[in-house]
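Deliverable D4.2, example record:
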Amino acid sequence: MTEQPHHQFNESDFQHMLDSMFAAENEELLAKLREQIKHDEQLEELSKAIGIDDKDLVQSLMDLGITAHSMAALTMYPMVCVAYADSVLNLEERDLIMKMASEWNMKPGDPGFEVLNHWLVEGPTEDGFAVWKKYIQAVMAQMTPQQVADLKLSIMNRSNAVATAVGDVLGRFGNRTSKAEDALLGEIESVFP
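Output generated by the structure prediction step:
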């Protein structure tokens, strides 16, 4: 029987052996930690950009695809909701929303434009509309009454324009909006004092 060479483990050898045994697991944990840090930084960045400390609301906005760089799209969410009120996005509504986005200096390639385009393709969600309402209420709490009135006028004018876009093209007589659009316009207006 041959004698096996005797190797003495020192502490560094032992640590190296342990590290190699758990290298994949450590990399996975490190990747999760990096992802969490990135998420927390984005949450903080968006919170600062919109001036809202409510972390649940900020997280809900992030879940909608909103970042500090794409928050301009958030002002357009009610228009997307109105466009989809009858479950169909018409070309006239889409074109008008894109024209409005352009007037707000949102251009293809910009984060806000890309988020808006995603909403136009996928459609709005009930959760998204609820988050928008919470966001607007939080923003209004920091505004003067005149600023709130101006914000309401701007959002209602643009939402009404989207609601009547198809009626204007079709030359409808009487009511140029659908019942679903009217109901949604009322719900948008109810957010404001």
